[in-house]
Design brief:
7-stranded mixed beta sheet, single chain, 663 residues, Rossmann fold, binds beta-D-galactopyranose, 6-stranded parallel beta sheet, 17 helices, alpha/beta, TIM Barrel, 3 domains
């Protein structure tokens, strides 16, 4: 049951391969080591523009042909990348106007990457030409299994404020609003008397001592995302003239979106992600699961997605680049597979000796073959081959959805807000963590996802919501789901205008409450609820109009007034959590929320032992990842694939190890 045209037989394993950094002898060693490790797919050419198109319109294909053939002869598939993330030096020297400009008017200097303005027609022409040349030369090559447009579009050129971008922004606004009256009304430009009388007066939110209109900022985010998506589409249509293989691009889905990934994902035949663990994150294992649950939530039919880049050990761009402990590489990669990735790909194959990322880990580290990292890479390759049968299966259907919307994120992040030091991802992640700790599977989905299959729908800080999405969330409760709305949800409409008459405007009726004033807590301020749960960051003056009070304030300025409410509606219920609960409060509330519902752990296991099930046509597989320092014993029957041993009711998963049981 292969899902679409998956580029490899079984799971994909490999990474970015940059042979241009090395002499030919190393290429031969590379393919030998790739075979030893079982690599079956490499991303080729991703930063090689300047070495292929050596001058304007002059190409050097010789070395590229040679490496393509070498990989092909060795049975290694190619994910062929258009190299447009890194324009050549000759191009930037010839057209410095295509370098992006920041909000304060500084043009980026050449020498980095993704240094191009997404609205530059000159850049678009050059990018299309190199994509076309690659497509023409390798479009029918049997080694080329898929195409990879550019690299992490938006990571470096996510926002450009140059004059060309400003003109493109205006055209985008004209297309969106039709006329100035509509735009002025939507943005509320009467405020500060900013009414526009000509589209030419509209500027991107460039540097200013006073705050810009939040609506303008939100539209600029949308525009920037759309411009980059247009760029993807342009390269894709050039490639599509030469190939029928899947054409995708690598997203950066973790905890904050540069572009609107959920909406982009609808265009991608294979959704691919780059995920890097943040060493300083105290909850890094959960963050990894969270990003994966987001990927599954945006992948087609929740089907397999591709882990396009992660790291074997340290990265090079964090303040302290933490190395992965022994076995952590295996655990990380197999968590991605457990949560729906049919690939474990890395940046990069061989650690660079020179260049900006010379201290980034790789599959072959500086130390070479005789190293912890390479041994674990080989072991991972062998594990993935043993798990080949899971390719094309999907993760068991979750009963819990946590909603995430990029536009809500942007709307909450931009402009003056009642509490500025808030990150959109905090609440979704806090909720997700409570489920993760109990091994209850969660899909993190956009608000327009089909909510029918979920028994519990959590709506954390969905600051911006459309009427349609709010109605579908309400319909989920009517149908029988438990819906939990968190504070700062439903506050503004898609024009970023506050919904009047009491917060949370879009959900007031569903929840049977009305909140008349926000009471954000000062940093370090804490109050308590009558349940004993601690509250930080957020509270509000709430009245229940048609709901029962689940918890109220025991102290603080709102002492005696409600904080958490519940309303029965249709066959389900709608809860409002108007307070910023600490983790223990979220956990305790979660127990009450799942009481009497079908929501349960995949398998009960100790905290730190992650259990996820993948399901295929003829079998299902239980992935058990023991992040802890104690062995874990579980009751399972089946066949363990990594050790190739039968499991007869009792399975011991040693500390730090992974087991996968065909049930
Ligand atoms: C990714 C990027 C790679 C490499 C990697 C380092 O964001 O796509 O090219 O820079 O980060 O962690």
């Amino acid at each position: 049951m292969t899902h679409g045209a998956w580029p490899t037989e079984g799971l994909s394993f490999g990474g970015d391969y940059n042979p241009e950094q090395w002499p030919r002898e190393i290429w031969r060693e590379d393919v030998a080591l790739m075979r030893e490790a079982g690599v079956n797919l490499v991303t080729l050419g991703v930063f090689s523009w300047g070495l292929v198109e050596i001058d304007d319109g002059r190409f050097d294909w010789e070395w590229f042909d040679e490496i393509v053939e070498l990989l092909h002869e060795n049975g290694i598939g190619i994910d062929l990348a258009t190299p447009t993330a890194a324009p050549p030096s000759w191009l930037l020297a010839k057209h410095p106007e295509l370098l992006p400009v920041d909000a304060d008017g500084h043009r980026q200097a050449p020498g980095g990457r993704l240094g191009w303005c997404p609205s530059s027609p000159v850049f678009r022409r050059y990018a299309e030409r190199i994509a076309d040349a690659l497509g023409e030369r390798y479009g029918k090559h049997p080694a080329v299994r898929m195409w990879h447009v550019s690299n992490e579009l938006g990571g470096g050129n996510g926002r450009c404020y140059c004059d060309e971008s400003a003109a493109a922004f205006r055209s985008w606004l004209e297309r969106k609003y039709g006329g100035l009256d509509e735009l002025n009304a939507a943005w509320g430009t009467s405020f500060w008397g900013h009414r526009y009388t000509d589209f030419e007066q509209i500027m991107p939110p460039r540097g200013s001592t006073a705050a810009h209109s939040p609506a303008l900022q939100l539209d600029f985010e949308r525009f920037s995302s759309d411009e980059l998506l247009e760029h993807f589409r342009a390269e894709r249509s050039v490639l599509a003239r030469h190939t029928d293989r899947p054409i995708t691009t690598n997203l950066m889905v973790n905890t904050g979106d540069v572009v609107d990934y959920p909406r982009w994902a609808r265009e991608l035949p294979i959704v691919a992600n780059d995920h890097y663990v943040i060493g300083a994150d105290p909850h890094r294992e959960q963050e990894l699961a969270f990003a994966d649950d987001r990927m599954r939530g945006i992948a087609r039919d929740r089907g397999p997605w591709m882990m396009m880049e992660h790291s074997t050990s340290a990265v090079a761009w964090q303040p302290v680049n933490r190395a992965k402990a022994p076995r952590e590489l295996l655990r990380n990669s197999l968590v991605h597979v457990a949560r729906g990735a049919d690939a474990a790909m890395f940046f990069q194959w061989r650690a660079s000796a020179a260049g900006a990322e010379q201290f980034h880990s790789a599959m072959v580290p500086h130390a070479g073959r005789d190293s912890k990292v390479f041994r674990e890479v080989v072991e991972l390759g062998s594990a993935l081959r043993r798990l080949a049968e899971v390719q094309g299966s999907t993760v068991e259907r979750a009963k819990v959805a946590v909603l995430w919307d990029t536009e809500a994120d942007w709307a909450l992040r931009r402009g003056l807000k009642p509490r500025r030091s808030m990150s959109y991802s905090d609440e979704p992640r806090r909720w997700h963590r409570a489920f993760w700790r109990r091994n209850i599977l969660v899909d993190v989905v956009p608000p327009w996802a089909d909510l029918d299959a979920y028994d519990l729908v959590v709506v954390p800080t969905l600051f911006l919501v459309s009427d349609e999405d709010a109605a579908r969330i309400a319909a989920a409760a009517e149908r029988g789901a438990t819906v939990v709305v968190g504070y700062l949800s439903g506050i503004v409409d898609p024009d970023d205008r506050v919904r009047l008459g009491g917060y949370p405007g879009a959900f007031r009726e569903l929840l049977g409450v009305s909140s008349e004033e926000f009471f954000p807590l000062m940093t370090d301020e804490q109050v308590e609820l009558d349940t004993g749960w601690r509250v930080r960051e957020w509270s509000e003056l709430l009245t229940t109009t048609d709901a029962e009070v689940v918890a109220g304030y025991a102290n603080g300025p709102l002492s005696g007034s409600p904080a958490i409410s519940r309303r029965h509606t249709g066959n389900g219920s709608a809860w409002y959590v108007s307070a910023g609960l600490e983790e223990d409060g979220v956990a305790a509330l979660l127990d009450r929320l799942i009481e009497g519902t079908g929501v349960a752990p995949v398998l009960p296991a100790a905290e730190g032992v992650e259990v996820v099930r993948r399901v295929g046509d003829a079998a299902s597989w239980l992935f058990v990842v023991n992040h802890g320092s104690e062995d874990e014993e579980l009751t399972v029957t089946g066949h363990e694939l990594l050790t190739d041993e039968p499991v007869d009711g009792r399975l011991v998963v040693p500390a730090g190890e992974v087991r996968v049981i065909r049930e």
